[in-house]
Amino acid sequence: MRPAFWRAATVSAVALMVTAGSALAANQYDPGATNTEIKIGNIMPYSGPASAYGVIGRVEAAYFRKVNDEGGVNGRKIDFISYDDGYSPPKTFARARKLVEDDQVLLIFNSLGTPTNTAIRPYMNEKKVPQLFVATGATKWNDSKSFPWTMGWQPNYHAEAGIYARYILKNKPNAKIGVLYQNDDYGKDYLMGLIDGLGDKAKGMIVSEQAYDVSEPTIDSEIVNLKASGADVFVDFSTPKFAAQSIRKASEIGWHPMFFLNNVSASVGSVLKPAGFDAAQGIISAAYLKDATDPEWKSDKDMKQWNAFMNKYAPDVDKSDAATVYGYAVARTMVQVLKQCGNDLTRANVMKQAANLKNFDPGMLLPGITINTSVNNFAPIRQLQLIRFKDETWQRFGPIIGGETSGA
Fold first, then answer.
1. For residue 348, what are the contacts with CB-CB under 8 A and spacing of at least 6?
2. Does a structural domain hold residue 400?
3. Number of Cα atoms under 13 Å in the Cβ half of residue 209
4. Rounded distance between C-alpha atoms, residue 292 and residue 314, angstroms
């Protein structure tokens, strides 16, 4: 018979092995995650024709600094690595490869642009690395079957354009519509949403379609052409630089149609103020986030928290730029996903938790709008409310409108 002390030592060794095995099982990691750190990649147009959106990356970096100052996520600090791609798809692809293969990030978060994210989507899905909460509203991001590693965040462009179409049909049924759109997947998705929303009346109502390339210095000639077409409704599907130009040029040539401006360019600070508030009066858009310039939210608890965050962590950023609210809200959504991951920081679990958000409110959504996802719903936000510009801010009107679409 073995001595009692031998049996006790054997039992202790087995117990240690079981404990160690449980610890290993409790903490599961893929590249980019450890006991102390989570690496998150990001790609933004800090330069180039869409550089107005670069503030999003700056605010996200600031928010993750705040999270780290407060102890991180489940005790892990966020290492946020953000690169400039100049809104150029080939550069986006190069930056994505660097983030995944050299920097070894756990995921790529909120990279901006429809053509740019389109360029990296096959690569991200082949590598099985989350391409999470892309900063673009193209309908294609809601395609969990074909691209299970790519997910959108904001309302999709097709549905938003459909909302404008329904408003036009109801309030100006004999409209002559002129459309300005960016000549890429971003602009074409909006244009198709408008055409689909108008239905069989589209061909008779749309009298002019003017496309521009992001490399063009101005869109003045396109605006002149739209006025010359006789259009009395202007639907503007452009990015901030060109949106500001179109508002200013339309005013300069005395063209005052019913004016619709897409949500992604509805920033007071980066679009309407540079264009001139006088020229922007009466413009209609759609929103899903609270507007920091709207006095309605002055006493709002979540807006007060946002203001305190901006004052401390991003004091040099213009608060009237709607991109600041966007960056804050999407960063908070990312943190929520990481919290839900617990100690299972595998890429598969990141996607699982991203597809398991239930009535989540990052604090800056309009009342009645929440984030919901599932394995069959990769479109977290699906609702909007119409807004009209008056004086120096947006005013909401009408009900919250659902923007359901079929996905990809």
1. 30, 128
2. no
3. 15
4. 15
pTM above 0.90, yes or no: no
266, 387 contact by CB (below 8 A):
yes
181 phi and psi, to 5 degrees?
-145, 150
Residue 6 Cα distances to 18, 19, 20, 111, angstroms: 18, 20, 21, 59
Q: Whole domain around residue 169: which residue ranges?
A: 157-287
Q: Do 144 and 63 reside in the same domain of the chain?
A: yes
Asked if the structure places residue 182 within a domain, the reply is yes
180 with 253, same domain: the answer is yes
State whether the Cα torsion 60-109-340-375 is positive or negative.
positive
Q: Output the six-digit token pair for 249.
A: 């040029």
Which DSSP string do the residues of 191-254 spell out, in sequence order? HHHHHHHHGGGHHHHEEEEEEE-TT-S--HHHHHHHHHTT-SEEEEE--HHHHHHHHHHHHHTT
| pLDDT tens-digit readout, 48-83 | 999 999 999 999 999 999 999 999 999 999 999 999
C-beta separation of 395 from 388 below 8 A: yes
**pLDDT for 98 beyond 80:** yes
Question: Which pLDDT score is estimated for 402?
Answer: 81
